[in-house]
Sequence to fold (317 residues):
Amino acid sequence: MLKCTMPKWSLLLFTWGALSFGGPAFAEWPEKPIRLIVPYSPGGGFDTFARAFAPELEQALGTDIIIDNVPGAGGRRGLQTMLKAKPDGYTITMFNVPGIVIAQVTGKLKAVDLNDIAWISSVSKANYSLVLSAKSDIGNLNDLCNLGRPAKFSATGPGSSSHTAAVVLMETASCPFTLVTGYEGSTEAALAVIRGEVDAMVTGIDSSSKFVVSGDAKIGLTFSADRMFDDVEAAGEIGDPELESLAQIRMFGAPPETPGDIIKKFSDAFEKAANSDRLVVWSQSANRPITFLNSEETAKTIETQFGVMEDFADAFN
Fold:
């Protein structure tokens, strides 16, 4: 049998060097590109935010961000795709709140408990708006309720943000309505309104503003306590305070059990990106406000949303 003749002190130094420089367990993260799953089609509000943040995240993290659009099932297909990945920090996804919360409250989300998601950050909180075609005679919620038939709303899918907010709006107003789902993203759903295929949709103001600016759409109501526009009613003034608690929130999360130190690095990177000069200018010029929350604050927001959405659970079944 061969015996090791290396002195003990040399063997210790060799072992330490191998662990420090050659062992994968001590590899510095990130070492390769990060996949960012956007659970909606290109061109919508979620995709726009992801692509705006990506360059700043690349600079903060020192690696490439690869955006992967995985639309379907109101955002759940993208989530399920993320859950198949290893919890190693190389796959994250965006979340549509409160849509994804409603999916769990109503039992449609079975793949994971949202409280187990490794929450990274929240970057946007936008008031909802009732979007109508600029060519339509329908001007507000009262007009929708008095069509003599159920009002038709477009939505990306059951449990999506547009679906969630439309149901709460019409249920609280006690107005008949139907939902036409299956649109791949908020842009396609808005175009259905503009073309006259449906009467209305509900989406965040930051998503609807480009269609209003182009002259193709108009806003009939904002989910806010006070008026955001001089000629547009607010939920607070028409006696619908329940609507004021609803907002479209864009969050980022990673698979359960993703290491806490990686989540911290992600959260810090998102904060740095949110405060970068380029994104501040983009936010103002594009009329897409950035509302940053760190990982802990984002997790608390999910808990709060569960409390709100459970009050409307019966309306989604």
